[in-house]
Specification:
two-stranded parallel ribbon, about 50% helix, disordered N terminus
Length: about 210
């Protein structure tokens, strides 16, 4: 655990330093890839290359969350019409063969390339490399009092639940996994999650 002693003082500073260093380097290295993905998205379907959405961060602070657009332009408007096809546990919304996903978008999701713009969120300080995935405001409203602890830390690009259960649809189990991470977080745990995430993405295990 990181709440007491020397490690508790070093961990937050070291974690932020690692976030800035890795996200800054990757954003520079990925400039050509960003360009190619953007062109592919624009050629494949109408709309912009990036998707912006409001998510809930540490202590309930709202922020703009960025991804490469993987759905058709009016996807959010169509969500209500697809509610009866939801395969996830409320308040999550997930359809394995979501008709709103574009051809390029399906590839981006399978390879997690749609997540690359989130390194900008990390550099800005909205996200960390490792932490509970940021939920939508309506999803946060479904938290129980005990589950509010999930908002006590900065959210992340990846978490243990995502690394191990990439396509899972169980809301409460996801929350409990995040709470366990929060209570026992450490540099070793973060590095292990990053390694498992890299392996999961590389092998496309449980990809949607």
């Amino acid at each position: 655990m990181i709440r007491n002693g020397k490690e508790g003082r070093i961990y937050p500073v070291g974690k932020r330093g690692l976030d800035v260093m890795i996200s800054g380097v990757l954003l520079i290295l990925f400039i050509p890839l960003f360009g190619m993905i953007s062109v592919a998205i624009l050629v494949d379907s109408r709309g912009g290359a990036f998707f912006r959405q409001i998510r809930v961060g540490k202590n309930g602070k709202l922020f703009n969350f960025y991804k490469f657009r993987s759905m058709i332009r009016n996807a959010e408007m169509l969500r209500k019409t697809l509610r009866n096809q939801n395969e996830a546990e409320e308040p999550l919304f997930k359809i394995r063969r979501d008709p709103r996903i574009t051809r390029v978008g399906r590839f981006l999701r399978a390879t997690s390339l749609d997540e690359l713009p989130q390194f900008w969120n990390v550099l800005r300080g909205d996200l960390s490399l490792v932490g509970p995935r940021p939920h939508l405001p309506e999803e946060v409203k479904a938290y129980s009092e005990a589950q509010q602890e999930r908002l006590s830390v900065k959210p992340g690009i990846t978490c243990r639940w995502q690394a191990e259960n990439r396509s899972s649809t169980k809301f409460d189990e996801w929350i409990e996994s995040d709470l366990e991470y929060i209570r026992n977080r450490s540099f070793r745990a973060d590095l292990a999650i990053l390694y498992r995430t890299f392996y999961t993405v590389l092998t496309r295990r449980n990809a949607v």
